[in-house]
Structures are given as C-alpha cells and as structure tokens.
Amino acid sequence: QLQENQDEIENMMNAIFKGVFVHRYRDAIAEIRAICIEEIGIWMKMYSDAFLNDSYLKYVGWTMHDKQGEVRLKCLTALQGLYYNKELNSKLELFTSRFKDRIVSMTLDKEYDVAVQAIKLLTLVLQSSEEVLTAEDCENVYHLVYSAHRPVAVAAGEFLYKKLFSRRDPEDDGILKRRGRQSPNANLVKTLVFFFLESELHEHAAYLVDSMWDCATDLLKDWECMNSLLLEEPLNGEEPLTDRQESALIEIMLCTIRQAAECHPPVGRGTGKRVGSQ
Predict the structure, then answer these.
(1) Which GO biological process entries does UniProt record here (predicted)?
(2) Looking at the chain, which terminus has fewer C-beta neighbours within 10 angstroms, N or C?
(3) Could you tell me if 234 and 114 are in contact, meaning their C-beta atoms sit under 8 angstroms apart?
(4) In this structure, which topology does domain 6-132 adopt according to CATH?
C-alpha cells in the first residue's frame, strides 16, 4: 500500500511537471521562468531519487541561456544547492560534462551577480571533482582576480585559492610550527609570486592581494615568511628566487601591508551593478 501511495504521488508530480512546468519554464514573463527554475531546483534537492536526473536537469541547462539575468541567476543558485551536497555528485556527472562550458562562459556574464554565482558554482564543481575542469577552464576564472568589480574578483580569488593554495602536503604536518623560510607558507608564497608573474599584469599586485584577502589572510599576512625568503640563504636543494621574483614578492608584500593598514580595496575597484555587454 505504501508503494502504491508513493507511485500515485509520483504520478501526480509528473503530471504537474508536464502540465505546468514544461509550458511555463519558457513563459513570456521572466519572473515566472525564474520561479519555475527555483522550484525544480528544490524538487531535485529534496527528492533526488526521482528528480535528479538528466530528464529534469536539462531544463536548467537550457535555461542558463535565458535572456534575463534574474532567470540565469536562479539556474546557478539551484545548481549550487545540488553541487554543495557531495552525495549527489555522481548524479551530476553527465550534466557537468554537457553544460560545463556554458557555466565557464557565464563567469563573463554582463550581469555582475550572475558572473559571481557562476564562479561560486565552478568552485563547488572544483571541490566535487578536480578532473572536470581543464587548465583552460581554470585560467578563464584565474584572470578575473584582476577584475575591477570586487565581488567578481573575490569569488575568483576563492576559486584560485581552492585550486592552487588550499592543498597541503601530508609531510607538512610535522613542520606546521616552523616559521619563516621553513614554514608551510613558504611554498605558497612562492606559488603566489609565480602566479603573479605569469599573469603578466605586474602593475596590479594590489588587485590580486585584495581578491585573495578574505580567503587567504593568514598567508598574505605572513610577513615573517616573506622577509625570510628575501633575506635568508636558501635551504639545501632549494632554488633561490631570481631578481625578478624578489621584486614581485616585495611588491606583493607592500600591497599586503597597505591592505592591512587601510582596510579598503585598491583605487579603481568597486561594486557597480553592470559590466559592459559580453
């Protein structure tokens, strides 16, 4: 009897889906389209056994091309609710492979709010499976740490941190209390310098520091480590920093000190509502 009742309820829900959702997710009114996507996201999250499959996910994927930003935004937030739950990751693999390129392109959306949520969604995708995003996908997000719009830059900074700075070598556990050049942060500071030089936006160190300030404060405030990298002799087998790398580290260090002292974003970075058309 329980099974019969469950089947009956599922049949009713499917009837509602086919009778209402399938017609209204393309409604002429953007607000109705947005409500449809928000609701199907809730259905897939609450009752994943029945609704979290490609037959329903495809509607969210298609709607990511909607001409209204508010609707695209609902697609991304609905997907974030699904990717956040690691138990659902296996059911999202086909969707990810099919619509990943669209999500990556949305990081350049003309609506700032949509771009921010696209980056946050990619950060969740990254945490669910590192193999999904190619090096090119990641680089498309990395360069946004230099965006003039702070929320976009901060979201990109968190993505960059999770990808390049958050993994620790198990061997580091024994040296966590070491300081200066021997601290676990030493390699991370070098990684930051290498990234900064490779990005070829050398006049924008303040932007890079501001983008990562919220998620990597402990690293960016480890001035003892930065000083020792500049002043102390390299350890055995360690490559010394080149003059160019030392200059970059000094520039980054000065920007972190200024950020700590002034507590505001660099000149030219704001929180305006729109980007130019993409």
Answers:
(1) sister chromatid cohesion
(2) N
(3) no
(4) Leucine-rich Repeat Variant (1.25.10)
